[in-house]
Amino acid sequence: MSTPSRYWREIPQRYRLEANSCTKCKQKFFPPRLICPECGSRDLVKTKIAEKGKVISYTIIRVPPSQFKDQAPYAVGVIELDDGVKLMGQIVDCDFEDLKLGKRVKIEFRKLFKKGHSGILCYGYKFVPDS
Predict the structure, then answer these.
(1) What pTM does this model have?
(2) pLDDT, tens digit, for every residue of 48-93?
């Protein structure tokens, strides 16, 4: 789990879906990077990732980590967004019987967890069916 300070540093990625793109080889990276791992260029520009994509892999978590016990069972998947970026996240609002490879989904922002005794709420993206 990330700490509250790390969580706040990641807000541009979490809330605005900010990524960066290499001007040399055109690869897109999420989360953003300082150096392109494909070509080594440092000439990167801020961009936004697509908000829709398709499920390319998934699993159903039936025995979760302790902080997610109240959510089990739940689905987690790898989603290939329409711009080629791949993200992993929880797939919600979908019956397990309806979940299949190629299913179209979109990103929604939801509560992820409550941090520590102070109860800091941490939000992030989850995937929902794109109807």
Answers:
(1) 0.80
(2) 999 999 999 999 999 998 878 888 999 999 999 999 999 999 999 9
Nearest to 58 by CA among 106, 99, 107, 112: 99
Q: What is the topology classification, in CATH, of domain 50-131?
A: OB fold (Dihydrolipoamide Acetyltransferase, E2P) (2.40.50)
Closest CA to 105 of 81, 86, 71, 72: 81
In this structure, what token pair is assigned to residue 45? Answer: 């520009």
Distance CA 101, CA 120 (A): 35
Question: Domain extents for the chain?
Answer: 1-49, 50-131
Mind listing the pLDDT tens digit for each residue in 99-117?
A: 999 999 999 988 777 777 7
Burial bucket for residue 33 (CB in 10 Å: 0-12, 13-18, 19+): middle
